[in-house]
Amino acid sequence: MIRHIVLFKIKDEYKHELPQLVEAFYGMKGKIEGMLDLQAGQDILHSERSYDLALITVFDSMEAFQAYQTHPVHLPVKKHMHEVRSASVACDFTF
After folding, report:
1. Which DSSP letter does residue 2 get?
2. How far is Cα 95 from Cα 76, in angstroms, rounded to an integer?
3. pLDDT in tens, 32-57
4. Which stretches of the chain score pLDDT less than 70?
5. Strands 2-10 and 35-42
6. Is the pTM of this model over 0.90?
7. Which of 63, 54, 61, 64 shows the shortest CA–CA distance to 91?
8. DSSP readout, 35-67?
9. Which CATH architecture has domain 2-94?
10. Rounded to a whole number, what is the distance in angstroms from the first to the last CA of the chain?
């Protein structure tokens, strides 16, 4: 299995969209073959090192993870995140 973790810093002018961004992530849940789980949420500590949003997904295989990258349900979310983020970091690992 593959766990995919992404943290996003959101541009100040889009921070009011944080709840809708989390909803958009959850809108993908159950709609992408091979995605076994999805969790998302806003940062609650707002510390100096905090990112604004986290997305954690689990895939049953590397093939499912790769298919997710171009899946029609994921593409509009991905496109919008590229517009509203100022930075992101990711970690992907097997378990």
Report:
1. E
2. 28
3. 999 999 999 999 999 999 999 999 99
4. none
5. unpaired
6. yes
7. 54
8. EEEEEEEE-SS--TT--SEEEEEEESSHHHHHH
9. 2-Layer Sandwich (3.30)
10. 6
Beta-sheet strand order (sheet of 85-94): 35-42, 53-59, 2-10, 85-94
* Structure-block tokens of residue 65: 């993870």
DSSP 90: E
CA 2/CA 16 separation, integer angstroms: 31
Domain limits of the chain? Answer: 2-94
Q: How far is 1 from 37, CA to CA, in rounded Å?
A: 11
Q: Which residues contact 15 (CB under 8 A, 6 or more apart)?
A: 52
